[in-house]
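INFO batch 0412 | record 1 of 1 | parsing
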Amino acid sequence: MLSQTRAIIFANGILSDPAAARAAIQPGDRLIAADGGLHHLHQLGLMPDVLIGDLDSVEPGEVEDMLRAGARVERFPVRKDKTDLELAVRLARAEGAGDILIFGALGGRWDQTLANLLLLAHEDFRSVRIRLVDGAQQIYLIQTAARIEGEPGDTVSLISLQGDARGVTTDGLEYPLQNGQLPFGSTLGVSNVLLGKQGMVSVQDGLVICIVIGQPKTINRTNT
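INFO prediction complete | emitting tokens
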């Protein structure tokens, strides 16, 4: 069973707003470095609880420092079937995290960025709340319903991820949908606007990626 434990994973992509990432970390959060994500944590003056991956982006001395500090190191072969970030997400899920916040998952290589985005839709992770955060942007999956939280004027984009999304209803957005459809590959749901501090989106059939773009802030979400 998933708990209320929150895991924060740092991947080896671009960390565009280190201060916002540091402010998001709360007491009790479990910190996981996905390979070179270790460098982001070092930049923030933090030591992860776990370092996981093939470790091709960290120096042997850094691994030794981790071990001396009492952190756990999970080393995998370079020739493997999963990215370091997927390994980190699987670890967090196996340890019972019900909420996973990921920094440094975007930017740099397009193949890695796209694969990281699609991790949200992996069948193994749909029972977990996962958010990718990049500065003022957050990205998560809507399966049935979600409350969107932010500030009036924040940009909200809804993009179908698995064929056409049907029965899409929104509340609290400038351009509403009522039992509507988001065609796969369409830009119909891009650049909507949050009218208040929260809105709602429900989906009867399909998977929808939600991107909220606003001012850097700590964001909480309820997804059912």
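INFO post-check: Residues 6-135 form a domain with the Rossmann fold fold (CATH 3.40.50.10240).
INFO record closed
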